C-alpha cells in the first residue's frame, strides 16, 4: 500500500503565476488535509476535504488559494498569482474514515516563488 | 484556541546521553497527541501516537508520555545517537485538524 503521494516535490514559480499542487491519498482514504510550513515556522492547518466537499477551510487565506478533492483523481491545492510570501513547504495528509483517525503525511511540495 | 509549545527550541547533547523533549498544550480536549520527526528539507515521520485515554507509548529507544489534565507531554530518547539529529514536532489532534508546535531542533554530538 503506497503512502500519501505528492507532486511535484519541488515547484518554482515566478510572481504572478499559478501553482497547482497535487496530493494522492493512501488507498482507501477519503479524507485529505493540507498544511503549510513557512520558513522557520511550524506547520499550520489550511483545509480539510472529503470527496467533492470542503469540510473546514478555516486555515485557508481568503484570497488566491483554493482546494478541491474531486470524485476521481487527486486533491489539488491551487494558488493563483503567487507572491514571494507563498514560498513554503505544503504537506498533504490523509485519513481513512473520519477525522478521528490518524492522519498520514506525504513528503510535501516545496514551492519557491522567484 | 489550542496552542502547542515546545521547549527547548534547540538542544545539543553528547552521543549516548538520555534526553527529554517537552511539549505543552493549552486545551486538554484532544483526541490524541503525536510526535513527529522532520529531517532538513524532508517530510514528517510519525514516531509515536498517544490516544487521549492513554498515558504513554513506547517504540524502541523512544518513550512518549501524556498528561492530559496538565496539558503536557514528554518525549524521552534513550542512549542518543548522531542519527537522532533532527527536528522533533509535537502535535495535538482537536476536531478535524492537527495543531503543531514549532519543534525542537536536536543535535547529537558525536
User: What's the helix count of chain B?
Assistant: 0
Distance between the termini of chain B: 41 Å
Unreliable stretches of chain A (pLDDT < 50, length at least 5) are none
User: How would you classify the helix and strand content of chain A by structural class?
Assistant: mainly beta
Structural class of chain B: mainly beta
Proportion of residues in β-strands of chain B: over 45%
Largest interface: A-B, 24 and 23 residues
How would you describe this structure in keywords?
heterodimer, A: about 110 residues, mainly beta, 7-stranded mixed sheet, 4-stranded antiparallel sheet, about 50% strand, B: about 110 residues, 6-stranded mixed sheet, 5-stranded antiparallel sheet, globular
Task: Explain what the structure shows.
- The complex is a heterodimer of chains A (about 110) and B (about 110).
- The model of chain A has no long low-confidence stretch (mean pLDDT about 90).
- Chain A has strands at about 5, 10-15, 20-25, 30-35, 45-50, 55, 65-70, 75-80, 90-95, 105, 110-114.
- By secondary structure, chain A is an all-beta fold.
- By secondary structure, chain B is an all-beta fold.
- In chain B, strands 2, 4, 5, 9, 10 and 11 form a six-stranded mixed sheet that branches. Chain B has a five-stranded antiparallel sheet with strand order 1-3-8-7-6, with no helix packed on it.
- The radius of gyration of chain B is 13 Å and the shape is globular.
- The model of chain B has no long low-confidence stretch (mean pLDDT about 95).
- The interface of A and B includes residues 59 and 99 of A.
